[in-house]
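pasting for ref
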Amino acid sequence: FFKKTAFRELLLSVPILVYFLAKVFKKHRPDAIIVEQKKGFFEFILSAFAQKYQISLILYQHGYEMFHNSKRDRISTMFRSWVLRVLSYNFTTVLISGLNSSSSRKIKYDLCLIYSQYAERIARQQLDCKEYYICGNLSIRSMAGLKNSGKESTDGVLICSNGFLRYSNLKLRSKTLELISSLYHSFRECAPVKIRLKPGEFVDRDEFSKYSLSSQVFADNTVAMSSQLQEYKYVICSDISTVGLECFVFNKKLLTYSVGESPYNFFSSLYQKMDVNTIGSVADHGRCNERFDHFSDVNASDFEFYTGILKPGGNANVVNKIYKAIQQKKDTYE
């Protein structure tokens, strides 16, 4: 654990970072600090400064796995979160406020911008926050605004990688590549197929040839997903991926795959609830029409309790909520 989290580097960097931030906050006092994680290293440090100087502290939900619902998930991250808190939040509080500061207690947020009713229910159990505002995932909602962009989809298949190709774990890489290449070779007999790697993923020429792939089979992953999705009728993605949610926004037919256990179980369980098919092997696909029968067609509105508002817009309301939280904070301390 300590090796993976660079324990010594974190411990040494806190005083330096606090020193420079203290100089910044003495000259420039922001109206608000917006953080995207509730247990990140830098977020803990910034939260300590917000508590010290009575600055509005606003949390914007970043990712659907931000709030773990199951007891097992909470326990698995508890120790790591506690160490990070002691190293960053508590240590920073002592450095800027002294040992007797009341700021060393639980972090208090002035506003939490939450994706959905489901996320709010869990967040209320884990956070101390004055107000919760359900705004949906703004990046997904911006995609929803492009729904009628006029692009015509083909009968092609887009296979999206799961992000595991960014890591050096050879077993995980080979398992992922083997499954993706199997899916590619199975569906290319029936329709045009492209593979989209996640940004940061890399597959070299040796891996190409091992799985009988060429560089031409890969889609341009510098193009926005919202734009590229509209070019395909069928999409295959990992059962832990948000790509599936984007498919529902654009009414694409979806099939998911799994390469084993993952701590990110929000979407895998959500897809199961909505009867989205997950396939781990292509051995039993049969004829082309039978292969495409595996794809699911699900109404996005059924997901809104879990994923949040999927309609376009919402930015103006979020900005107004932030300004209101800032003003309330100022009124409290004036």
